């Protein structure tokens, strides 16, 4: 099996190194990741400047772009063969509910999905890389499942609690929960008197009931959510047609 690995924390992040180490024994891996942290970059592609690609001493490729750039460049200009699977992560911190709209980790997997390749995004519940070896082991087990019963391509979003492997209760198929509105920005003033703004934290869970990714991870389970790209609000189509009549 040939696997393309990317992330949004950058090619030096512990998460992508742990993921590559876990998957190398079972697959022919290629790592193409951003040169620095690109968290929150969503599905953006760099169109206003050229991108360069370098190779690190450990064989990882890195480029001066977004996670979506990494997968796009890998698939259309770098790799000689099409991979069987694309995995992204392991991200430092959860990507659940509304986070998936902003996540560079999910975006890298989404780019692979858009090219018709099965793709999986992996994230840990909390930041700090706690119990990363456990998360990497779980990621490998999920990849080894292959999910042959799912229509291809599929796009899976996986969130793993920061727990020792023995304390993980299992995996659950979940839907995305929802968050409250984000916290306000933090306003600062620089030495020149200019206002500066830091984006505030994500909102707390608003819909975290049974069946959601929030509920599963809070109870010690790995959350696996199948994602889709179609943003059409199908239920409103008839109302819109009437409004246009």
TrEMBL record:
<dbReference type="GO" id="GO:0046872">
    <property type="term" value="F:metal ion binding"/>
</dbReference>
<dbReference type="GO" id="GO:0005737">
    <property type="term" value="C:cytoplasm"/>
</dbReference>
<keyword id="KW-0963">Cytoplasm</keyword>
<dbReference type="GO" id="GO:0004309">
    <property type="term" value="F:exopolyphosphatase activity"/>
</dbReference>
<dbReference type="InterPro" id="IPR036523">
    <property type="entry name" value="SurE-like_sf"/>
</dbReference>
<comment type="function">
    <text>Nucleotidase that shows phosphatase activity on nucleoside 5'-monophosphates.</text>
</comment>
<feature type="binding site">
    <location>
        <position position="8"/>
    </location>
    <ligand>
        <name>a divalent metal cation</name>
    </ligand>
</feature>
<keyword id="KW-0547">Nucleotide-binding</keyword>
<keyword id="KW-0378">Hydrolase</keyword>
<dbReference type="Pfam" id="PF01975">
    <property type="entry name" value="SurE"/>
</dbReference>
<dbReference type="GO" id="GO:0008254">
    <property type="term" value="F:3'-nucleotidase activity"/>
</dbReference>
<dbReference type="GO" id="GO:0000166">
    <property type="term" value="F:nucleotide binding"/>
</dbReference>
<dbReference type="InterPro" id="IPR030048">
    <property type="entry name" value="SurE"/>
</dbReference>
<comment type="similarity">
    <text>Belongs to the SurE nucleotidase family.</text>
</comment>
<keyword id="KW-0479">Metal-binding</keyword>
<feature type="domain" description="Survival protein SurE-like phosphatase/nucleotidase">
    <location>
        <begin position="3"/>
        <end position="182"/>
    </location>
</feature>
<dbReference type="GO" id="GO:0008253">
    <property type="term" value="F:5'-nucleotidase activity"/>
</dbReference>
<feature type="binding site">
    <location>
        <position position="9"/>
    </location>
    <ligand>
        <name>a divalent metal cation</name>
    </ligand>
</feature>
<feature type="binding site">
    <location>
        <position position="39"/>
    </location>
    <ligand>
        <name>a divalent metal cation</name>
    </ligand>
</feature>
<dbReference type="InterPro" id="IPR002828">
    <property type="entry name" value="SurE-like_Pase/nucleotidase"/>
</dbReference>
<protein>
    <recommendedName>
        <fullName>5'-nucleotidase SurE</fullName>
        <ecNumber>3.1.3.5</ecNumber>
    </recommendedName>
</protein>
<feature type="binding site">
    <location>
        <position position="91"/>
    </location>
    <ligand>
        <name>a divalent metal cation</name>
    </ligand>
</feature>
